[in-house]
Amino acid sequence: MKGKNEWKMKLCSACLLGIKCAWDGKDRKNEKVMALLKKEILIPVCPEQLGGLPTPRP
């Protein structure tokens, strides 16, 4: 049974949340993604790091 205050949880690319983990060591902060934080729980993950790539990459 879902309550009206239940939050949705989703994975999100960490760089879109402002974490400096993109290939060039910068972030890719996205305002639409940041707006989702008001109604959902976003779990930051870095797909490149999960795949074994270092960041930043030369």
Summarize the structure.
With 58 residues, the protein is α+β, with helices and mostly antiparallel strands. The protein has helices at residues 31-36, 47-50; strands at 8-13, 40-45. It has a domain at 14-41.
In percent terms, what proportion of residues is strand?
Answer: 15-25%
SS-derived structural category: alpha+beta
> What low-confidence regions span 5 or more consecutive residues with pLDDT below 50?
none
Task: Round the mean pLDDT to the nearest integer and report it.
Answer: 89
Helix content: 10-25%
CA-based shape? elongated
Radius of gyration: 14 Å
What is the N-to-C order of secondary-structure elements (H for helix, E for strand)?
EHEH
InterPro entries: 2-thiour_desulf
Pfam families: 2-thiour_desulf
Description:
The longest helix is centred in the middle third of the chain and has 6 residues, at 31-36. Strand 1 (8-13), helix 1 (31-36) and strand 2 form a beta-alpha-beta unit. A two-stranded parallel sheet has the order 1-2. It is elongated, with a radius of gyration of 14 Å. The protein has helices at 31-36, 47-50, and strands spanning 8-13, 40-45. With 58 residues, it is α+β, with helices and mostly antiparallel strands. It has a domain at 14-41. It has two helices and two strands, in the order E-H-E-H. InterPro entries: 2-thiour_desulf.
